[in-house]
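Title: Comparing notes on inverse folding

I've been comparing how different people in this forum approach sequence design from structure. To keep things fair, I'm posting one structure and asking everyone to reply with a full sequence. Here's the target:
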């Protein structure tokens, strides 16, 4: 996350007086503060985490019908030899849609980098883009029931959902990535000054809610990803036309709860590997296990509940789940940024924490400036002066604990007044798979996009996060593919080309077909070196285009030039689990695909060499040559590569 200290034009003292004069008068202040309403009757305020909620279950059933039609069209276009699409569709209908594959897209954390490159991947799967259809990958997006995101991956996940699921090219027009949200000198529909954003925070605080950096950053993200719609909530997605018509995937965000088991550094808490991951969806907020094992309706998040009922029947809360705040919660990594700054980057060895620790200082030295310590201090100072809030009060997203007194919750969570939530990637799983792999969701195929910049120093990816999800799934006894260690990702080039895990059901944690097949796609240079820093938030139209083309080339394997069969292989993996349910044979071409693209279960010696990549489609063009014709980034910065 980059921002430049010069943008903080206000002194903290000015902020303080502004807050006191004019709370409520900022353009969006009234809508950003949640509101109190009379509690509605007949609400199940808290439910145990067994199965899907009734509304999600009904929605998924509706989605399957729409998916089946899209899947039929997609499969017809693939022309898989010896595969009878109508026969397949007939089986799906005959199962009363039970066997229709449930698929998902997961976009990793990694700031604006992952938000933009992941959107490029989504675009290459979209049937609405003629080039994607022409090259055989378009249409898979229309078959997806879930789309999950955390941290930077939450930006597209929320943005597509609350903006009515436009195309990627349309959504870029909404985002206007040429505007710098971290340095706005005036408040418009598309960007705001820090002063005005602090006014919004003041309004929420005056209404009786905790505020902190998750709110501030949520607003910054909101001006880009949900512009002009600060009164739009995540729960409100259920009332959108495309969602009601089951014509878009359901968004899932991930956050992590800090508990008394959290580690502490410089007075700030950091989750340990087993701290509980929470789901935030339009329907519900809660966790499938761990410290909550319960869910509450997202629409009334912020309401003070005790023993599963409102404490005050006249004080239910709506509007707490603003789309902007939802992104702010999912990307609330202030604790790590501050620790990084206070330790001068020396806390890089804190292995349980996410990529940011260590990597931020790498950015500072090697890339562009990123959260310079002075800025951390300035933001903290602004909160202190303007709102009288200390560092520990603003470091986490603090929300009234809906699970107070709930017996299925852990002893800590049963008694905590507020839940302290942080960036979903802080547990070491930067790809938001946890929500999708819960058995209740029955996913059978997941496209995992990773751009978490965790292979230092060149900020590609190395499989660590996917491996961590495998370890966590195994420990929790969740069905998930077995994932080899990082050294094998590097030696097999899984950091540059598509790979499926779990094709063979024996290569899963439960050794049966309950685990989804996971397609791992790591951001890699195909036509452009897009290992730019996670915090670069401004993109020219040319840069954005190059990002999209690079992701397109990766997802389509250079429009099939690397392997003309690739689109068929993708389709094969997408339906493999459902073929088994339908009692249909895996077509011969699919089997040959799986030999090439599925991990075979053999763990080799591997390699730990630095991930330093060249353009897959044009290996002779090294970074420096490429930079000569793409003067985007500061030429003195080394992105490295062997060429
Ligand atoms: C495909 O299956 C359908 C229905 O199951 C059948 O009517 C049709 O003849 C089959 N097509 C071919 C080419 O086998
Ligand atoms: C203020 O921001 C606008 C829009 O981002 C920009 O066009 C203008 O040059 C900026 N003015 C100053 C003085 O920085
Ligand atoms: C949000 O605010 C806009 C503009 O004030 C209004 O038109 C719209 O109906 C509001 N939407 C919701 C969900 O309240
Ligand atoms: C959806 O719309 C209905 C009807 O207007 C309304 O009662 C309900 O509160 C809305 N749901 C959400 C989550 O906003
Ligand atoms: C997390 O793991 C630690 C160390 O293994 C253990 O002491 C602790 O009880 C675990 N916490 C939870 C909530 O499972
Ligand atoms: C309940 O909430 C209402 C509305 O916010 C407030 O006026 C009332 O004082 C509250 N009652 C108690 C007992 O806190
Ligand atoms: C970080 O660097 C600053 C300035 O060089 C120094 O004052 C401070 O003691 C250092 N902190 C740590 C934890 O090393
Ligand atoms: C600021 O907060 C502290 C405790 O958090 C409190 O003691 C103090 O009175 C507050 N100052 C102001 C000016 O409200
Ligand atoms: C892989 O990434 C992890 C997480 O950032 C890092 O700790 C490790 O050193 C990397 N290993 C290689 C070989 O790149
Ligand atoms: C991985 O990529 C490198 C560089 O393109 C190549 O030399 C090597 O043979 C590849 N290894 C595998 C296992 O594909
Ligand atoms: C693949 O097609 C896209 C869309 O037409 C284009 O932008 C891209 O340059 C093509 N890639 C290759 C390797 O030809
Ligand atoms: C790679 O690193 C891992 C973890 O540090 C180590 O266990 C493994 O032996 C290394 N493999 C190679 C080939 O160096």
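Reply #1:
Here's my take.
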């Amino acid at each position: 996350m980059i921002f430049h200290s010069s943008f903080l034009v206000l002194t903290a003292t000015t902020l303080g007086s502004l807050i006191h004069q004019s709370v409520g008068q900022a353009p969006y202040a009234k809508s950003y503060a949640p509101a109190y309403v009379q509690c509605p009757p007949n609400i199940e305020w808290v439910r145990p985490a067994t199965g899907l909620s009734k509304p999600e279950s009904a929605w998924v059933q509706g989605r399957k019908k729409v998916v089946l039609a899209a899947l039929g069209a997609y499969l017809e276009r693939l022309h898989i030899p010896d595969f009878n699409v109508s026969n397949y569709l007939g089986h799906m209908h005959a199962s009363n849609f039970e066997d229709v594959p449930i698929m998902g897209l997961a976009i990793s954390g990694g700031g604006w980098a992952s938000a933009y490159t992941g959107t490029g991947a989504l675009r290459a799967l979209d049937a609405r883009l003629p080039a994607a259809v022409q090259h055989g990958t378009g249409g898979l997006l229309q078959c997806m029931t879930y789309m999950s995101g955390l941290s930077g991956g939450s930006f597209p996940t929320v943005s597509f959902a609350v903006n009515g699921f436009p195309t990627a090219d349309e959504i870029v027009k909404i985002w206007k990535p040429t505007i710098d949200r971290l340095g706005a000198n005036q408040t418009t529909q598309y960007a705001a000054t820090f002063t005005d954003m602090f006014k919004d925070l003041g309004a929420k605080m005056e209404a009786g809610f905790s505020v902190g950096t998750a709110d501030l950053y949520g607003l910054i993200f909101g001006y880009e990803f949900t512009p002009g719609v600060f009164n739009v909530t995540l729960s409100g997605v259920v009332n959108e036309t495309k969602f009601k018509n089951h014509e878009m995937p359901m968004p899932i965000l991930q956050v992590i709860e800090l508990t008394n088991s959290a580690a502490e550094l410089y007075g700030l808490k950091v989750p340990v590997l087993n701290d509980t991951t929470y789901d935030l969806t339009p329907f519900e907020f809660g966790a499938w296990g761990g410290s909550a094992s319960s869910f509450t309706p997202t629409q009334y998040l912020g309401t003070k509940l005790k023993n599963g009922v409102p404490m005050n029947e006249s004080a239910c809360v709506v509007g707490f789940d603003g789309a902007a705040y939802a992104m702010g919660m999912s990307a609330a990594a202030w604790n790590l940024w501050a620790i990084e700054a206070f330790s001068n980057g020396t806390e890089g060895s804190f292995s349980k924490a996410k990529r940011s620790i260590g990597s931020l200082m790498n950015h500072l030295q090697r890339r562009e400036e990123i959260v310079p310590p002075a800025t951390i201090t300035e933001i903290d100072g602004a909160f202190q002066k303007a709102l009288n809030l200390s560092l520990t009060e603003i470091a986490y997203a603090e929300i009234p604990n809906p699970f107070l007194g709930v017996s299925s919750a852990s002893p800590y969570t049963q008694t905590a007044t507020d839940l302290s939530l942080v960036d979903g990637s802080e547990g070491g799983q930067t790809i938001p798979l946890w929500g999708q792999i819960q058995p209740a969701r029955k996913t059978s195929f997941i496209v995992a996009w990773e751009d978490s910049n965790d292979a230092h120093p060149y900020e590609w990816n190395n499989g660590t996060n996917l491996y961590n999800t495998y370890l966590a799934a195994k420990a929790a006894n969740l069905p998930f593919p077995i994932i080899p260690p990082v050294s094998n990702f590097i030696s097999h080039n899984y950091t540059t080309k598509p790979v499926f895990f779990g094709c063979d059901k024996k290569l899963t944690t439960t050794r049966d077909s309950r685990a989804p097949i996971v397609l791992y796609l790591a951001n890699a240079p195909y036509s452009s070196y897009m290992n730019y820093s996670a915090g670069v938030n401004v993109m020219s139209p040319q840069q954005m285009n190059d990002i999209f083309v690079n992701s397109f080339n990766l997802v389509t394997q250079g429009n099939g030039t690397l392997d003309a069969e690739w689109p068929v292989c993708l389709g094969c993996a997408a339906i493999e689990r459902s073929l088994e349910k339908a009692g249909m044979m895996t077509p011969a071409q699919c089997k040959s695909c799986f030999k090439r693209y599925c991990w075979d279960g053999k763990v080799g010696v591997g390699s730990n060499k630095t991930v330093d990549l060249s353009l897959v489609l044009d290996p002779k063009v090294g970074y420096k040559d490429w930079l000569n014709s793409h003067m985007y980034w500061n030429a003195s910065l080394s992105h490295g590569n062997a060429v």
